[in-house]
Amino acid sequence: GKWMVKLPPLKMNASGQDLVITGKNTLTIKDVLTGDVWLCSGQSNMEWNLGSCNAGEDIAAASLPAIRRIKFPHVSLSKPTTDVPGKWETCTPQSAGGFTAVGFYFARRVQKETGVPIGLLDDSWGGTRIEPWAPLVGFEQEPSLSGIVEAVKKRDAEAAGSPENKPLDPTQPVALYNGMINPVVPFGIKGALWYQGESNGGEGDEYYHKTRALVNGWRNIWAQGDFPFYFVQLANFNKDEKTPAGGDGWARLRMAQTKSLQIPRTGMAVIIDIGEAGDIHPKNKFDVGERLALWALHHDYGKKDVVFSGPLFKEAKVDGAKIRVSFDHADSGLIVGKKDGRNPVTAVADGKLARFAIAGEDKKWVWAEAVIEGSSVVVSSPEVAKPVAVRYAYSMNPEGANLYNKEGLPASPFRSDDW
Question: What is the per-residue pLDDT across 107-124, written as a single tens digit (0 to 9) for each?
């Protein structure tokens, strides 16, 4: 049979206890912790395991009994299933290599700072698009995605007469929700971590609407309020085209990801400084997990002194031949920074900002000189007497982008225009 137990709020407990269920028979589940569970989903950069990240020292030191995970197999179905073909696994030096690396580093940081046991639902599939992960109810809330709704309803109607739950191509909308997310609902979760977008990399604003469908759909299905949803903006990758206009590759998708911060209780880890031009799977997942953890520590674990975001574009004001750009999350000031591997960002004395471009009414972009003034950046070029717009790091691989806040978190790419 299928049954559910809802317990009143329990105190956090990192010592394993027995959970005893008595009916006609008695079941005893041993070594149960009381803590927080985070859903980790997306495509291959979320699925990428710790053992593939040059993380030998971290694996050797991973005797972390308060961190656990369930690894979900890849399942793509025509109808929702409730089967969970997996079990909790404790983090040890023997098991840690198989953990999602992003989830591991997130959990390690949060658990260390709070003492709260962390469970990870390792629920991702490499190469997948966003559409298969979202439930139908999410798409139904987005008028611009009505075509997806019609296609799914048509498919569901055709399958309604069959008792069989058939495997679907994992590119089909809702298919991975049916096979891999629905089994978890309505298990109590603290929030969700999401790393995906490469397979939707040619999109722009439509990806924002699909993200809304995913987030609002999950929240609707879970019925646990607006739980936090923290996601990763795509890293720098491929050849640097070195054009001031930019707009190539994932540039527009990153704008859609930034726009997704308009969705309540979302957060974004910016990682344009740790990608690898020749590898779509950058090995530095340490900074990815750490930067996601900052959002959770500040918003969900009471660490209000933690600075959780790098500079985010606020506004651009034209002042004669210059444009002054102001930012959110830059109150402590801005720096020209240098990032070397997993080492903390260091300020570059007398360093020059790179990857700023400026344009006038003719919409011709040129590289610009950018100077930090307190918590803003002043941008100009002798080639543009009357500037009207500015862009920063707006390309597939904005190599050399080096604007950070003083806490060492990178500024997100931005554009002030809508051309």
Answer: 999 999 999 999 999 999
